[in-house]
């Protein structure tokens, strides 16, 4: 059987991003659990704010097509999102919006969301750890008919969640991340 490939997408471009850091930790756990992991930055896939006129005039931007194809080349996808005003940042929503507009030959619109497993995680400096962004992201992905695994991680007080060797301090967070990694791999395998 070919290696199980997981794509990890942090939803923040910020230098020192808690979510980029959590994405790196998750990528490590996924690799430890046997997956072949690709971790990207959305900074490499810059997209204008979705505008139907722009799509009509110029088509779907190349970066959205490339990102969709990168998702297609993986069996599972983990999105690690910040929480902005109780929801997902525009970056995450806008990226998903554009990717849903990509249609490759012999595929139906949005097939990339339906054919693979998704997992979601968040990191925030407050006690809720981005729980509301996770709820919003789960809803968005459900609207895309994606299979989103039940396990998730909302990392609270993210600025203090790591020790001086960049390992998660709290056993509960470590366990939640390992469980998420195992379940994403398991469900991705079943959907291969
Ligand atoms: C516009 C804006 C809105 C925010 N709203 C929330 C919020 O509703 N809940 C929350 O936990 N944090 C909120 N934050 C704080 C972010 O979670 C925090 O800046 C976090 O570090 C961003 O993720 P990053 O470190 O990966 O860039 C907000 C930040 C910004 C800039």
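^ Assign residues to that structure.
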């Amino acid at each position: 059987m070919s290696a199980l490939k997981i794509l990890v997408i942090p939803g923040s471009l910020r230098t020192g991003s808690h979510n980029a850091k959590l994405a790196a930790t998750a990528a490590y756990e996924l690799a430890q659990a046997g997956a072949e992991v690709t971790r990207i930055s959305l900074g490499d896939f810059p997209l204008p704010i979705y505008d139907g006129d722009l799509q009509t005039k110029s088509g779907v931007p190349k970066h959205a097509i490339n990102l969709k194809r990168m998702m297609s080349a993986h069996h599972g996808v983990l999105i690690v999102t910040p929480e902005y005003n109780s929801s997902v940042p525009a970056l995450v929503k806008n990226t998903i919006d554009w990717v849903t507009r990509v249609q490759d030959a012999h595929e139906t619109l949005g097939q990339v969301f339906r054919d693979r497993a998704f997992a979601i995680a968040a990191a925030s400096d407050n006690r809720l750890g981005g729980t509301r962004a996770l709820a919003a992201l789960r809803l968005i992905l459900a609207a895309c008919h994606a299979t989103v695994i039940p396990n998730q991680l909302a990392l609270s007080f993210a600025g203090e969640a790591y020790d001086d060797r960049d390992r998660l301090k709290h056993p509960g967070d470590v366990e939640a991340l390992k469980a998420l990694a195992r379940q994403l791999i398991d469900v991705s395998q079943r959907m291969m």
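The chain has a mean pLDDT of 97.
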